[in-house]
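Input (structure):
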């Protein structure tokens, strides 16, 4: 089954990406370097429409022409529209109308917004905020990805995931659009199975959230009707000083593992 490549690292997270890539950087050139890395991934022969149906991009990548590069491979582009989270996990204010207009003008077919579910007390507010924004996005003709991420190192991960599953189902019953749900791979297999069949849900994709490729794929393989939207697990093992053959071999292995786990 095809999956979504998550390639939407913002300026704040790009440093960690480049460090794992074995690449020295400065604040002035880090976005140039991470764009080169993303293009190197996209240009890998295995990064194609047989394995990947869409890629999530940060606005900087769209500005640099990544949508056209993806389109040449028949891969859709999804725009990260949020401006990060407050300490409580809720989305910071951002100009949604402007981001919708930008996405439509640049050939993107969907959007993504990431919140962080740290406590049960904030969960309802996070879901309400996400679906309120998703309604506007869907009405504008784009497919919203709703991403209420449960941190993989949360001591309350199981409880948060169980509450999240129930709350999402309740809220989606009153949601009049459609959306993609991007959720942390759960500790309980098939916890989100009912959501995969909900009439408001286009698909459910799992985020790797810092799990290794092996762990993320093992967890994904336990979920029915769920595919992937991996970032770190997709790029694991890629190094700047690799030859193109070495780079493509490693990325191909990651893509094959993720594709098989998604089936």
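Output (sequence):
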């Amino acid at each position: 089954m095809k999956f979504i490549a998550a390639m939407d690292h913002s300026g704040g997270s790009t440093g960690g990406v480049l460090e794992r890539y074995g690449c020295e950087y400065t604040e002035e050139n880090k976005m140039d370097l991470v764009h080169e890395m993303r293009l190197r991934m996209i240009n890998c022969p295995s990064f194609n429409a047989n394995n990947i149906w869409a890629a999530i991009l940060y606005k900087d990548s769209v500005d640099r022409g990544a949508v056209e590069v993806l389109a040449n491979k028949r891969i859709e582009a999804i725009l990260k529209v949020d401006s990060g989270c407050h300490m409580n996990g809720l989305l910071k204010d951002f100009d949604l109308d402007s981001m919708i207009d930008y996405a439509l003008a640049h050939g993107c077919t969907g959007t993504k917004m990431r919140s962080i579910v740290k406590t049960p007390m904030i969960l309802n507010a996070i879901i309400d905020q996400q679906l309120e924004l998703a309604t506007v996005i869907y009405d504008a003709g784009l497919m919203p990805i709703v991403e209420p991420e449960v941190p993989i190192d949360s001591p309350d991960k199981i409880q948060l995931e169980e509450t999240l599953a129930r709350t999402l189902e309740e809220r989606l019953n009153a949601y009049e659009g459609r959306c993609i749900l991007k959720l942390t791979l759960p500790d309980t297999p098939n916890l989100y199975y009912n959501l995969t069949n909900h009439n408001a849900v286009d698909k459910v994709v799992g985020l790797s959230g810092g799990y290794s490729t092996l762990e993320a794929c093992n967890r994904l393989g336990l979920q029915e009707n769920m595919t992937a939207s991996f970032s770190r697990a997709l790029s694991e093992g890629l190094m700047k000083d690799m030859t193109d053959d070495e780079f493509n071999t490693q990325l191909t292995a990651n893509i094959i593992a993720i594709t098989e786990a998604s089936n």
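Notes: The CA atoms of residues 85 and 91 lie 4 Å apart. DSSP finds eleven helices and eight strands in the chain.
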